[in-house]
Amino acid sequence: MMISEELLAYSMQHSTAEDELLADISRQTHLKVLKPRMLSGPLQGKLLEMLVRISGAKRVLEIGTYTGYATICMARGLGDKGRIVSLDINEELETMVRNFFSRSGLAEKIDYRIGNALDLLPQIKEPFDFVFIDADKRNYVNYYDSVVGEMKPGGLILADNILWSGKVLAENRKKLDKDTAAILAFNERVRQDPRVENVVLPIRDGIMLVRKL
Ligand code: SAM
Ligand code: CA
């Protein structure tokens, strides 16, 4: 976390509050699921929802569903014709996640697929206009490369955890592990890509916001 607990609490108190379903997903994830820190919180969830709504995106892709918190947020930002495809390799969470989707009332907008995103992505032909990359860090460059080329101008890609708890800076790590190296490679790939403009949002664990030119 890059801001104090107090400022984070203040930021949440002055943002639209999480509703009961999202609060319950958060509660159940903390009680029953490994690594609850992976969950998107209320600030990131609301940001994703608002960006989907503002952009008017109709075809959204999420790579890394986990317990569906961000999926439901993005689904809420979609208009009548909008759909979201969300991919996750972890089949153990499927029953719980499908239950959350049905409680959201948006299940018909959510195409949830279980499998390795690297295998599933080539099967999807129609390009996306909004992509949230939030799965295994080592494949961030692969995920980016597989979606950016087909995107239309104005399409958005968001990638989460791109400051990696500060470990993108050498002074904050003992040695360069594979995940950190992958994040560094991803950030560099985006920065050097002439097809896009981008900005690093230093909120939470860092979000890379990319817009196709
Ligand atoms: N987007 C979720 C949210 O905001 O609440 C959090 C996603 S969590 C950080 C990462 C997820 O990526 C895990 O549920 C994991 O199973 C999934 N994952 C890891 N490797 C994957 C792969 N190769 N293909 C698909 N999903 C993968
Ligand atoms: Ca994340």
Automatic annotation (TrEMBL):
Keyword vocabulary terms for this entry: Methyltransferase, S-adenosyl-L-methionine, Transferase
Domain of life (superkingdom): Bacteria
InterPro entries found in the cross-reference section: Cation-dep_OMT, SAM-dependent_MTases_sf, SAM_O-MeTrfase
Chain segments annotated as transmembrane: none
GO biological process, one term: methylation
Gene Ontology MF term list: O-methyltransferase activity; S-adenosylmethionine-dependent methyltransferase activity
Record's protein name: Predicted O-methyltransferase YrrM
Organism expressing this protein natively: Cyclobacterium lianum
